[in-house]
């Protein structure tokens, strides 16, 4: 399996099998180019990057847009959070993030340093979890990023298990790409180290049971890594790394001061793997690809059904479905066995699927190359922005997203789309307002237990003659808001201003943000707000939540 993406190194790619699905290969190529570009490219740039005809690029991006994986923004194609469901399928099937991420996060908190979990991907490593620190100078690697083994701390550990064929492939790749240009997540290396240096590091890692990275990625970056072994096989399941900067630790300092804590955490991780029960039986999906026929009928030639069906095959995998037979894939997708087989052959050629000796199929870490790195750092305001714009177009009013501040008595605006009107609500991102007198604040306070609702000054200050300030009345309003699922505030924050809001909930059902629309009282009656605006708000909240739930399954989504 090549370390770098096959579509980025065409000369090193094996011959395309006769049964491979050409549109699927092209679609994967487009997704990888968008990933390498940070998640967005113009259609003209995609045409140049892929070498495909413009008409082909248009059909592929139209299909990806239909699937919700790409948003067509004018002349640009932009990856959307929905695409992360492909990488989530791999991470769920792998199970390691779900089993070990709490240990990694706890270690990061204890050491106040970034902690990573990585798996082997050919002769490279690919991150499956990141617990980063918020600093001016902090770790910038993302879940799904691919790094060359020789420039990392985990690399020598994985190399202790390489076969002679693996070592030969590594040397061939090094000779063809000495500067690591096939690894866009790392700066190119001007003076590559000799091959012997990495072989010595691997031999030392075999002896020590851990490995160091002393500024191999870039000046100032240091790391120490230890292997987390699968208790069933004794082989390395993943590697855990502590990453720092030379302003805080030298490589030797990491070894002397932080390595013991890392080894303790790794031992606990291995205990967790040993104690882990098999995943609970999950009903296998069925008919995942049946919708593609209707899309083909509706869009005609602009919809590439073989691409859509092929990508749907990846979503058949997941927790409890780490290895599937051809029959199981066909049943899950609703595709004919021959169609499913051709998709799997294509993925095996692209390095996204591997076949076991027993004949089953498994996803490989390269599935994370399909959009996961740039999308894994997406914040809630970024997720919400296109949905807010669509809502503003629909209701012809400004729309906003806000969160509660740490103190819980104010809301802070984190995203906003304004409409063009002579008289409009003038609020900017970052603005803070008292939670008790705003629709978004009331929605968020209503989601909290009564004892945790912060109402600010005691008693709350009247901002207009209509502001509700009595604590008992506010408590009743918050209970009503929780029951009805929305809040309507009429001229309590400012005279002439009416606003209505609904909550945005995370995967656990907790309200993490609120979205609203605000207007002058003359534009919509109270009844119109309830009958017309509330349903539009709820539809938008559902769309934001859908993206948030996909994004937040294995990645930490920033709320601001």
From TrEMBL:
Chain positions covered by the region annotation Disordered: 174-201
Domain (HTH iclR-type) ranges: 21-88, 304-365
Highest rank taxon of the organism: Bacteria
An annotated Gene Ontology molecular function: DNA binding
Keyword line: Activator, DNA-binding, Glycerol metabolism, Transcription, Transcription regulation
Gene Ontology biological process: 3,4-dihydroxybenzoate metabolic process; glycerol metabolic process; negative regulation of DNA-templated transcription; positive regulation of DNA-templated transcription
InterPro entries: GAF-like_dom_sf, HTH_MetabolicPath_Reg, PcaR_PcaU, Tscrpt_reg_IclR_C, Tscrpt_reg_IclR_N, WH-like_DNA-bd_sf, WH_DNA-bd_sf
Domain IclR-ED: 82-275, 366-550
Job description of the protein: May be an activator protein for the gylABX operon.
Protein's recorded name: Glycerol operon regulatory protein
Native source organism of the sequence: Streptomyces cadmiisoli
Organism classification: Bacteria, Bacillati, Actinomycetota, Actinomycetes, Kitasatosporales
């Amino acid at each position: 399996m090549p370390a770098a993406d096959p579509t980025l190194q065409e000369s090193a790619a094996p011959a395309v099998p006769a049964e491979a699905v050409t549109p699927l290969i092209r679609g994967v190529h487009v997704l990888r180019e968008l990933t390498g570009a940070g998640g967005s490219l113009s259609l003209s740039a995609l045409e140049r990057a892929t070498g495909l005809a413009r008409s082909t690029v248009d059909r592929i991006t139209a299909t990806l847009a239909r699937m919700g994986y790409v948003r067509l923004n004018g002349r640009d194609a932009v990856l959307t959070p929905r695409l992360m469901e492909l990488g989530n399928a791999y991470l769920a099937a792998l199970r390691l993030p779900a089993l070990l991420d709490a240990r990694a996060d706890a270690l990061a908190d204890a050491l106040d340093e970034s902690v990573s979990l990585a798996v082997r991907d050919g002769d490279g490593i690919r991150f499956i979890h990141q617990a980063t620190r918020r600093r001016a100078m902090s770790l910038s690697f993302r879940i799904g990023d691919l790094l060359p083994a020789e420039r990392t701390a985990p690399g020598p550990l994985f190399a202790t298990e390489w076969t002679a064929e693996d070592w030969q492939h590594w040397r061939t790749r090094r000779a063809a790409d000495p500067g690591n240009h096939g690894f866009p997540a790392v700066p190119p290396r001007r003076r590559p180290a000799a091959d012997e240096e990495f072989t010595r590091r691997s031999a030392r890692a075999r002896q020590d049971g851990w490995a160091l990275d002393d500024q191999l990625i870039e000046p100032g970056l240091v790391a120490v890594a230890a292997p987390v072994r699968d208790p069933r096989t004794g082989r390395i399941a993943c590697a855990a790394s502590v990453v720092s900067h030379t302003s805080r630790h030298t490589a030797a300092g990491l070894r002397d001061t932080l390595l013991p804590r890392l080894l303790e955490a790794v031992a606990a991780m291995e205990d967790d793997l040993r104690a882990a029960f098999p995943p609970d039986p999950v009903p296998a999906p069925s008919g995942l690809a049946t919708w593609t026929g209707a899309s083909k009928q509706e869009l005609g030639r602009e919809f590439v059904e073989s691409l859509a069906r092929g990508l749907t095959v990846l979503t058949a995998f997941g927790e409890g479905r780490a290895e599937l037979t051809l029959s199981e894939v066909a049943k899950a997708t609703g595709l004919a066995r021959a169609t499913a087989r051709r998709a799997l052959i294509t993925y095996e050629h692209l390095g996204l699927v591997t076949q076991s000796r027993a004949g089953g199929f498994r996803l490989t870490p390269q599935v994370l190359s399909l959009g996961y790195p740039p999308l894994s750092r997406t914040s809630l305001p970024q997720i919400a922005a296109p949905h807010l714009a669509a809502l503003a177009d629909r209701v012809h009013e400004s729309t906003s997203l806000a969160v509660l501040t740490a103190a819980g008595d104010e809301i802070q605006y984190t995203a906003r789309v304004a409409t063009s009107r002579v008289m409009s609500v003038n609020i900017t991102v970052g603005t803070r307002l008292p939670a008790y007198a705003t629709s978004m604040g009331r929605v968020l306070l209503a989601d909290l237990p009564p004892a945790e609702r912060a109402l600010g000054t005691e008693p709350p200050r009247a901002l207009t003659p209509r502001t509700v300030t009595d604590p008992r009345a506010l408590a009743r309003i918050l209970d009503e808001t929780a029951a009805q699922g929305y809040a309507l505030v009429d001229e309590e924050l400012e005279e002439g201003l009416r606003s209505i809001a609904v909550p945005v909930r995370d995967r656990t059902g907790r309200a993490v943000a609120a979205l609203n629309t605000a207007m002058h009282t003359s534009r919509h009656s109270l009844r119109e707000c309830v009958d017309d605006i509330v349903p539009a708000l709820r539809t938008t909240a559902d769309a934001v939540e859908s993206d948030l739930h996909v994004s937040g399954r294995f990645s930490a989504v920033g709320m601001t």
